[in-house]
Specification:
By secondary structure, this protein is an alpha+beta fold. The protein is built from four helices and nine strands; from the N terminus they run ββααββαβαββββ. A seven-stranded antiparallel beta sheet has the order 3-4-5-9-8-7-6. Strand 8 and strand 9 form a beta hairpin. The two termini are 27 Å apart.
């Protein structure tokens, strides 16, 4: 995290957030991220036992942090889901839309929001064997999964989404609960 002379908040780079993947929601490193982002919002265990995730969207920073129940995350027996603690497991970095400001921190691996699909693929060529593509591109990189979504014509990155590799122990439910904005 570094102070920016053009912003009154601390700019949080994606590496600091990715480095905190797997940390408890109330851990010191996660709390430092919340404070740097200038948000009072904290994740809460969803009521009703039907969801095992919560998200914290910080509109003025262009970032959304995803938290999952530790029992669900670790693929424990289903009756344990919802009985664990919340862990930081995902982050969305937005280029800006509606009332969500663009993320101004550094994206990993040299990515920039101005990168076209071809440029992003070139920058991530070392991970080409892991790439899956359709409307977005997804790679397994450096201990996490990186998904890049592009503007309609592929001329720029719309948002970048990272999740810890262990985020999807139950693929039919875990990764599909959050609707894309």
């Amino acid at each position: 995290m570094r102070n920016s002379s053009t912003h009154s908040h601390t700019v949080v780079g994606s590496d600091a957030i990715i480095g905190a993947f797997g940390s408890l929601a109330h851990a010191d490193d996660v709390e430092a991220i919340f404070q740097a982002l200038g948000t009072y919002r904290r994740p809460e265990r969803p009521a009703g036992g039907q969801s095992f995730h919560d998200w914290v969207l910080v509109r003025r920073q262009g970032i959304e942090l995803g938290f999952a129940d530790s029992e669900y995350q670790s693929a424990a027996d289903q009756h344990r889901w919802g009985h664990g603690e919340l862990l930081l497991v995902q982050a969305y970095f937005y280029s800006g839309f509606d009332d969500v400001q663009p993320f101004v921190g550094e994206l990993p691996l040299g990515l920039k929001f101005a990168d076209s699909r071809n440029v992003a693929r070139a920058k991530l060529a070392a991970y080409e064997a892991t790439r899956h593509s359709f409307r977005s591109d997804t790679w397994d990189v450096e201990g996490y999964r990186l998904t890049v979504t592009y503007v309609g014509d592929g001329t720029a990155i719309d948002r970048s989404h990272r999740m810890s590799r262990a985020c999807c122990p139950h693929p039919r439910t875990a990764c599909n609960e959050k609707a894309e904005p």
